[in-house]
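Pipeline run #58 for the internal structure catalog. This entry was flagged by the ingest filter as a single-chain record with no existing model, so it goes straight to prediction. Upstream metadata was stripped on purpose; only the residue string is passed forward. Reviewer on rotation: M.T. Logging verbosity set to normal.
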Amino acid sequence: MTMKVGLLHPGAMGAALGAALVENGHHVVWASAGRSDATRARAEAAGLSDVVTIAALASRSDFVISICPPEHAADVAGAVRDTGFAGGFLDANAISPETAKRIRPDVDGGVIGPPPRKPGTTRLYLSGSRAADIAALFSDTAVDARVLDDQIGTASALKMAYAAYTKGLSALLIALRETARANGVDEYLLEEWAISQPDLAGISEFAVTNAGPKAWRWVAEMEEIAATFAAADQPDGFHRAAADVYRKVAAR
């Protein structure tokens, strides 16, 4: 069944999710007001239709999907809510369960993996009362949509727990390499790694390369992970420090 879907906003991940929906026969719209030329190019390449404003997008959508930098998740949800939108709303942002509960979407989502280009690379975890409806939109696409349960916060909790390791470890590796350089022992560290941790030099180099263009976005994600840890009565300093690491990387 063809559905009308609003997408806010077509960044790298959002555009790829939108393209998967278009390929599945759905009509996907986006709002260009205030967006960059790069965003417009991604939206056009994905086959999305521009309706200019969020109000127009809401009026023409059965579902709205929010996928944006996590610090803007609440504002995007509020902008959609202010239009009087009565359809289904998926928040697929990297936010804590507590933030998801404050936003109050119909469906809570968390993406694990790169922008989907081929099957088997990207999972969209979903929870909430209409999770199965969102999963159905992505059936037979490169997006592996998986329903967890009917509770808001479950999908976000899984995303936070997963990213706590992957991006948290990357931040640690970036910081420890900088510390080794500052103390003049980076070469010796790499030599020791070659003996005892032969994969770690490559992993640390990838961490630096991968984080470079994305660090600005990961700052708020680390803060959301820290909030998730704190809510579970666990130390939140790990990921507040990781946020500082990515803040420095983004400022270079």
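catalog note: The chain has two domains: 4-151, 157-251.
catalog note: The longest strand covers residues 122-128.
status: ready for reviewer M.T.
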